[in-house]
Design a protein that fits this description.
This protein is an alpha+beta fold. The chain contains nine helices and 17 strands. Bound molecules: adenosine monophosphate and magnesium ion.
């Protein structure tokens, strides 16, 4: 779903394994980005064909870059028959929308398109266009024809779905499920910087994952700000410093605030969320980018019962030409 350089926001730190039992490492491309997978399989299977096929079939459901994907058909008002993956993505997205009081909104597609890929049309976007799409977004319909079968969607003309803020994390979870089903319990999966890790290496050490330091600009080399140990958890980063545009010295991110219909432009440079599921971390990281630092911290405080939003790492602009970081106590525990 995301381009390799733009959203490879976390890096794997490769740590030498002293035991002869080396992981199988697979690299490839999917969803417009890369994947990087390491696993210890007692049966030494090459799972590349299964991985590629799973990611490919997921793209035919949720990718906006695949002409005939289900989401593209839905957005063209072709009313295709939906499958259970589509319904699950939509149900999860709508639930997160409600939970985050609208900060996350998968019906934002028409607004994202209005600005154009990479916000290339932004100078031509008028307030009238934004307000009219916002009105449809707020008043329009998006529900199943039959909520028991969930196989057809009623979507108002003018609303377009966009699963990009959740799909990559979701794909990571699908891969993790596949490994679990194959009896592989020690693996690290990274799809475009969205990472999940399970078990450990043969020497008993944890998987280590790096969180990227804010880059000077989108072309800068990736550097690691902090490294965390990840065990049976996922970490996803959403950031504005690789996917952005600049106008009058202000950087605007690729994230849109559904309340205003405009790109978010506060001081947050990136948010990393560690949760049990990658789709959840992905969705919440995007929602926190919309909320900004202060509102996100309030939100986390208001939900002490939710373990999946407690471990969060914020990098923000200090408005003095540099940046600051804030790790919640739960995230601090993960830092190596
Ligand atoms: P992420 O990198 O996971 O934060 O996802 C960002 C992508 O999600 C953008 O490129 C848009 O396609 C889409 N998006 C933008 N704003 C929102 C939003 N408020 N809620 C959900 N998806 C969004
Ligand atoms: Mg996201």
């Amino acid at each position: 779903m995301k381009t390799p350089t733009l959203l490879a926001l976390t890096l794997l730190l490769t740590v030498a394994c002293t035991r002869p039992n080396q992981p199988t490492r697979l690299q490839g491309e999917a969803q417009g980005t890369y994947y990087n997978i390491a696993y210890f399989d007692p049966q030494h299977r090459n799972l590349r064909p299964q991985i590629d096929s799973l990611l490919h079939s997921f793209d035919t459901v949720a990718s906006l870059w695949v002409e005939n994907s289900l989401i593209r058909q839905v957005n063209r008002q072709e009313q295709p028959q939906l499958n259970s993956t589509f319904a699950d993505l939509l149900d999860k997205s709508l639930a997160i929308e409600q939970y985050t009081q609208g900060a996350f909104n998968c019906k934002i597609g028409a607004l994202v398109n209005l600005y154009g890929f990479g916000f290339k049309n932004r100078d031509d976007v008028t307030d009238t266009q934004i307000d009219s799409l916002l009105h449809i977004l707020q008043q329009g319909q998006c529900h199943y024809q039959d909520s028991s079968t969930k196989d057809r969607l009623i979507l108002s003309e003018g609303i377009e779905l966009d699963f990009n803020a959740i799909a990559q994390g979701y794909a990571v979870d699908l891969l993790a499920d596949m490994f679990d089903q194959k009896g592989i319990h020690n693996y690290l999966i990274d799809v475009g910087g969205e990472v999940t890790a399970k078990g450990c290496k043969p020497d008993g050490s944890s998987w280590t994952v790096g969180i990227e330091r804010p880059a000077e600009d989108k072309y800068s080399q990736q550097e690691i700000e902090t490294a965390i140990q990840l065990n049976n958890r996922s970490v996803v980063t959403s950031g504005s410093y690789r996917k952005y545009y600049e106008q009058d010295g202000v950087r605007y991110s690729h994230t849109i605030d559904p309340a205003t219909g405009r790109p978010v432009n506060h001081s947050l440079l990136s948010v990393s969320v560690a949760s049990r599921k990658a789709w959840y971390a992905d969705a919440l990281a995007t929602a926190f980018m919309v909320m900004g630092l202060d509102k996100s911290l309030q939100f986390i405080k208001l939900h002490p019962e939710n373990p999946d939003i407690q471990a969060v790492f914020f990098i923000y602009d200090d408005h003095q030409g540099s940046y600051k970081t804030y790790a919640t106590p739960e995230f601090n525990i993960l830092i190596k």
